[in-house]
Amino acid sequence: MTKPLVAIRSVSKSFGEFQALKSVSLDVWPGEVMCLIGASGSGKTTLLRCINQLTAIDAGGIWLDGELLGVREQGGRLYRLSESEIGRQRLKTGMVFQRFNLFPHKTALENIIEGPTQVQGRKVDEVRAEALELLRRVGLAAKADSYPAQLSGGQQQRVAIARALAMKPMLMLFDEPTSALDPELVGEVLAVMKELAKSGMTMMVVTHELGFAREVADRVVYMDQGAIVEQGHASDVLGAPREARTKAFLSAVI
Amino acid sequence: MKPAPALAEGFPDLSGMQIAREPHWFRWLSVALIVLVLAAIARAFANGQIEWSYVSRFITAKVILEGIVNTMVMAVLAMALGIFLGVAVAIMRLSPNPVLKTVAAGYTWLFRGTPLILQLLLWFNLALVFPTIGIPGLWSARAVDVMTPFLAALLGLGINQGAYTSEVMRAGMLSVDIGQYEAAQAIGMGRLRALRRIILPQAMRVVIPPLGNEFIGMVKATSLASVIQYPEVLHNAENIYYANSRVIELLIVAGLWYLLVVSILTPLQMLLERRFARGTMRFAR
Fold first, then answer.
1. What angle do CA B171, B176, B180 make, to 5 degrees?
2. Minimal CA–CA distance to B155: which of B123, B112, B115?
3. What interhelical angle do A183-198 and A153-165 show, nearest 10?
């Protein structure tokens, strides 16, 4: 029997008074494409950031590939992992940000080879060949030597996806990858993500693109006020929502 | 094809005409005034009690040339020490560790809070506090022998500079977008590697203009080391005028050298700025 790639159990997180996550539990299965939808402040981005530990959780546990994240259990107590151990765990996930966060002082190619050469200690020549292949895959082979400022938003985001893929992650996390883009540039990024989904990558996508969710997602999770309200197949959740809050949200966005 | 509607009359074609140059009378008048004032100042100095032949004779004197070399050596070494300490202290200051934070803040407080000349004198006179220094059981020496004018000047200037540079570096690191830290972490980088590979190179763009300022300040601050007998250019110029009493002439010699050095540094700074501006240009050059 297969095990979930990500197992989230009773995870809570507060920012001061504001409770961003209220005892959330969820499984993500290998090869699954999951779309997280909900209003801003519903906790979907926080959940994503907890999985690659850019945000530390207050309570609960997250297991990635069977390994407990961020802490080690010993004798009934939890001990925080060191920075380097957390870095090693992060390598299993790739993150794509809303604001791209490409390194502006490096070219597209340099952005992609930075992680594999610096963090994984791999040889530049070998990584360069892979990076060029990734750039070709996202349709930007000609832009290898361009700096981020010379690329459009859609192109920057596609480089950012290639940068994340270069680390050979088991799980790709997308935090509203098209929200900062002009409408005419959204399609090119979604096309790359669709291709990635078809290749069998496990993906968690926080998005407002319901069309993308309907077409690509194996499961849609609707969150509100830090909790999962409803989840299921895209056609069920988006087509025939059961919960009143889901209905209200969907009628507001469509 | 439908003909274009006829254009209204009374608006002649101006495309062949050139725009006339304005005379700018006032600009020419001010230039003339400035030239007059400068000429008057030059005349005053030419007729004043200055023997210009001494200036031209001593400007390339061996002792003066050695002095300017010592000035440059000290400025470069002390600035290097200052930048090294400054980066280290800025990283400590931004670390989550409260011990490192407090140590860094204390260092900045102490060395920014006391005059540089006092620090130089303290380093130079360290022998009064600790007659012998060393590592117990391994090595020891008389402090007077170890604390030469060179070492005292280097420590005094470099450590003081580190306190200022740390704030410049900290400002630069704070100027880098938080998303850059997160993106570096997301590809598995630790804090120090992210700082070295991603944050500091971007911070450099912001800190080079103030660091250029600091370095120019350092070139001139080395003159303070004349009080602890370090043979930099001002100290050597003073030694000459103690002998020949040509005070103003030798001060002018030293001043001209400082001006020359600082004039060379400015284009160097521009080259550095261009190096670190990588990726900020919308279109590749």
1. 150
2. B123
3. 20
User: Are the beta carbons of B279 and A83 separated by less than 8 Å?
Assistant: no
Q: Put residue A43 in one of left, alpha, beta given phi > 0 → left and psi -120 to 50 → alpha.
A: left
Exposed / middle / buried, residue B32 (Cβ in 10 Å: 0-12, 13-18, 19+): exposed
- For the record, the structure tokens of A44 come out as 């979907």
Q: Check: CB of residue A39 under 8 Å from CB of residue A249.
A: yes
Using a CB-CB distance cutoff of 8 angstroms, which residues of chain B are in contact with residue A54? 182, 185-186
Identify whether the C-beta of residue A140 lies closer than 8 Å to the C-beta of residue A111: no
- pTM of this structure: 0.80
Per-residue pLDDT tens for A129-180? 999 999 999 999 999 999 999 999 999 999 999 999 999 999 999 999 999 9
d(CA A218, CA A31): 9
Helices B98-112 & B62-93, crossing angle to 10 degrees? 150
Q: What tens digit of pLDDT does each residue of B67-100 get?
A: 999 999 999 999 999 999 999 999 999 988 999 9
Rounded Cα gap, residues B243 and B240, in angstroms: 5
Is B177 near chain A, with CB under 8 Å?
Answer: yes
For residue A149, which residues of chain B lie inside 8 Å, CB to CB?
A: 279-282
Please count the other Cβ atoms lying within 10 Å of the Cβ belonging to residue B139: 8
Q: What is the CA radius of gyration of chain A?
A: 18
DSSP label at residue A29: -
Which residue type sits at A67? E
Sign of the C-alpha dihedral, residues A155, A156, A162, A165? negative
> Which residues in chain A touch residue B177, judged by CB atoms under 8 angstroms apart?
101
What is the chain A residue with the closest CA to B179?
A101
- Whole-number average pLDDT of chain A: 93
Q: How far apart are the first and last CA of chain B?
A: 46
Between chains, do A147 and B180 touch, taking CB under 8 Å as contact?
Answer: no
- Distance in Å, alpha carbon of A50 to nearest chain B alpha carbon: 12
| B197 part of contact set with chain A, CB < 8 Å | yes
CB–CB contact B202 A88 (8 Å): no
ipTM over 0.85: no
